[in-house]
Amino acid sequence: MAKLTVNNQVVDKFYDPSTQHFVTQEFVEDTFGVGATFTLELSEDEAALKSKQSAREKIAQQVADTDTLLGTTADTTQLLLNELSSLVTSLSTAQSLEDVRASVSGLKEKIGHIHTDVQSGRLAFPYQVKGEAQVMQEITERANGVSQALQTRGR
What we know:
By secondary structure, the protein is mainly α. It has six helices and three strands.
């Protein structure tokens, strides 16, 4: 829980960190008078959660809502699955280097520009901004969590 300090004195060590700023301000003014100053000290976990929530709100307001983002992710996954399937099928019958090159031509036409766009800075993926180590940790946590939930269902 957050620590609420009013006029340089801790008044609540277990303040709800999700309380909106204006509500806290009204509480402080009603309880300690107009002109009272306050600060809210968040724990490391609370600060990280607040930062994550803020980023998600910003994405929803400036980029797209969750359903649209999920739709884009599904489209991307389906495109890659279709192209990968085509590539694997073509490569499985390739007899020469020319056959291999021909196998990748469709995939290169569809997504070949992405490498150039990333290298030039025209495209940045969220995983690059977040950092690969953090993303891999999140993938592992979610995969294990879902797997555990599926293993224990019905028990």
